[in-house]
Amino acid sequence: MSAWQVRVLFVAVLNAAVQHGTSLEEELADSILGNFLDTLKDSSDHQRGSDAAIAKFSLRKPSHPDDDLCYIIPNKPASLAACAFNSTSKTFMVIHGWTLSGMFESWMPKLVSALYEREQTANVIVVDWLSSAQNHYVIAAQKTKAVGREVARFIDWIEETANMPLDNIHLIGYSLGAHVAGFAGSHATNKVGRITGLDPAGPDFEGKHAHRRLSPDDAHFVDILHTFTRGSLGLSIGIEQPIGHVDIYPNGGSFQPGCNLREALEKIANFGMFAITDAVKCEHERSIHLFIDSLLNKQGVAKAYRCGSSDMFDRGMCLSCRKSRCNTVGYDVSKVRRARHVQMYTKTRASMPFKVYHYQMKIHFSSKVNISEMEPSLTVSLYGTKEEAENLELKLKDKLVTKKTQSFLLVTEKDIGDLVRLTFRWKETNSWSASNLLKMVSSWWSGDSDGADVEVHKIRIRAGETQEKMVFCVKDPNNQSPSQEVTFVKCQGNWRMKSKGIMRVSPESQT
Ligand SMILES: *[C@@H]1O[C@H](CO)[C@@H](O)[C@H](O)[C@H]1NC(C)=O
Ligand SMILES: *[C@@H]1O[C@H](CO)[C@@H](O)[C@H](O)[C@H]1NC(C)=O
């Protein structure tokens, strides 16, 4: 990207900031991505490389995760012994992606170390195809097939020479390296056990036939983490479509927390175009760090949940684990194979450990005033047996409606233990007057009386991580004084469900 382009981008970004304050992030992403992808697409001034693909196989040592001390050379069986290859142990082959620098990136030794930390006797082989990956993106993408074939020949040779079951082979490919792994898997004589695709590259692979990209046919089990499927100009850095047996989209597969593009704006001013690459790389590379996290934090593995769409997940509609609807993110994923692709979602923290706790809240709003006219800001505080998580924002995807149960997703970074109490707080927004708010809130929690029964507003909660289901009732239903904060505790006594989502409590059962 030339300095001129950067300046244009910067001006465009500032204009965007002035005109659309709220969608700055989106505008920014489009500008950055557009420019970034343009440089990927423009290959006219680069020669088509025709030299044979070269892959080298470096068996790294746990004590030197950053150094290439010993190469295994195909057709030289002595190199296996020389590198102390353990043929009865698991073998990981880590395959890097496209590179500008022609060097391994800093994640490589981190991933190697994490693999050794988890599987001490494993063979961690780094597949070095830097010489081809250093080309212009389009050329590097074309070379993935040839490199994949070479990796396949290596796998065939090592299987025969070391008499190794291929179930022990796990290919881990990042970006373009994921497709290298796919070609390696499809060209190997026998199927390898597993391929993990870490944000497989999108440009030149999206929408292509399964034979021309990583696909579920390439290994007994193929799992994918999608972290940067942000589309622009019909292209996305990471592939958007599901291409494995299990495809997990952390944070919807885009806008990873901690990879703030707003911060990138400030960095552009200070550091120039490197900040652009940083912002793109942060999201793309997040897939690797999520995988490393899953290797290191065995106790705190994150869960992902099957869902029809990211939007439905954000509404809290998909936190069930029934019939393998949920799975573990990363290394310990359950190898569930279905005829159709399985898309799963999860939220994460901004840094390691990435795990969060997901809660589904189902709330039935009942009110005498028309609440769909307002856009309140709702915050919830959760009080558990271990800890509390206060002032969590309840994101409203739609307008509130009455006489209908609405579902929300709430996430907390803390493990609060068992939920015992929660408070619900409405904040006034500009467009809504305080008197209306109080009227609304008071009618909201006091409910309509209907014969002998009192309609009580309750909140049904499902904790994703424990799968525990709970029902919470207003703590003090007899207190009529309007308040912006309402406390709920676990419902007690003789409650029963009537009709759809409305719970009625007999007055005598209340304290
Ligand atoms: C090779 O791996 C096996 C199984 O993981 C392990 O039991 C054995 O100790 C390893 N051998 C060496 C020399 O490390
Ligand atoms: C509530 O307000 C919305 C928006 O002003 C309006 O479209 C809707 O018809 C109203 N509903 C009732 C029951 O008054």
Automatic annotation (TrEMBL):
<dbReference type="InterPro" id="IPR013818">
    <property type="entry name" value="Lipase"/>
</dbReference>
<dbReference type="GO" id="GO:0008201">
    <property type="term" value="F:heparin binding"/>
</dbReference>
<feature type="binding site">
    <location>
        <position position="213"/>
    </location>
    <ligand>
        <name>Ca(2+)</name>
    </ligand>
</feature>
<keyword id="KW-0479">Metal-binding</keyword>
<keyword id="KW-0106">Calcium</keyword>
<feature type="active site" description="Charge relay system">
    <location>
        <position position="199"/>
    </location>
</feature>
<keyword id="KW-0964">Secreted</keyword>
<protein>
    <recommendedName>
        <fullName>triacylglycerol lipase</fullName>
        <ecNumber>3.1.1.3</ecNumber>
    </recommendedName>
</protein>
<dbReference type="GO" id="GO:0046872">
    <property type="term" value="F:metal ion binding"/>
</dbReference>
<dbReference type="GO" id="GO:0004465">
    <property type="term" value="F:lipoprotein lipase activity"/>
</dbReference>
<keyword id="KW-0378">Hydrolase</keyword>
<keyword id="KW-0325">Glycoprotein</keyword>
<dbReference type="InterPro" id="IPR036392">
    <property type="entry name" value="PLAT/LH2_dom_sf"/>
</dbReference>
<dbReference type="Pfam" id="PF01477">
    <property type="entry name" value="PLAT"/>
</dbReference>
<dbReference type="GO" id="GO:0016042">
    <property type="term" value="P:lipid catabolic process"/>
</dbReference>
<keyword id="KW-0449">Lipoprotein</keyword>
<keyword id="KW-1015">Disulfide bond</keyword>
<feature type="domain" description="PLAT">
    <location>
        <begin position="357"/>
        <end position="492"/>
    </location>
</feature>
<keyword id="KW-0358">Heparin-binding</keyword>
<dbReference type="InterPro" id="IPR000734">
    <property type="entry name" value="TAG_lipase"/>
</dbReference>
<feature type="binding site">
    <location>
        <position position="218"/>
    </location>
    <ligand>
        <name>Ca(2+)</name>
    </ligand>
</feature>
<dbReference type="InterPro" id="IPR002330">
    <property type="entry name" value="Lipo_Lipase"/>
</dbReference>
<keyword id="KW-0442">Lipid degradation</keyword>
<dbReference type="GO" id="GO:0034185">
    <property type="term" value="F:apolipoprotein binding"/>
</dbReference>
<keyword id="KW-0732">Signal</keyword>
<feature type="signal peptide">
    <location>
        <begin position="1"/>
        <end position="23"/>
    </location>
</feature>
<keyword id="KW-0443">Lipid metabolism</keyword>
<dbReference type="GO" id="GO:0005615">
    <property type="term" value="C:extracellular space"/>
</dbReference>
<dbReference type="InterPro" id="IPR001024">
    <property type="entry name" value="PLAT/LH2_dom"/>
</dbReference>
<dbReference type="GO" id="GO:0034372">
    <property type="term" value="P:very-low-density lipoprotein particle remodeling"/>
</dbReference>
<dbReference type="InterPro" id="IPR016272">
    <property type="entry name" value="Lipase_LIPH"/>
</dbReference>
<dbReference type="Pfam" id="PF00151">
    <property type="entry name" value="Lipase"/>
</dbReference>
<comment type="similarity">
    <text>Belongs to the AB hydrolase superfamily. Lipase family.</text>
</comment>
<dbReference type="InterPro" id="IPR029058">
    <property type="entry name" value="AB_hydrolase_fold"/>
</dbReference>
<feature type="active site" description="Nucleophile">
    <location>
        <position position="175"/>
    </location>
</feature>
<dbReference type="InterPro" id="IPR033906">
    <property type="entry name" value="Lipase_N"/>
</dbReference>
<feature type="active site" description="Charge relay system">
    <location>
        <position position="284"/>
    </location>
</feature>
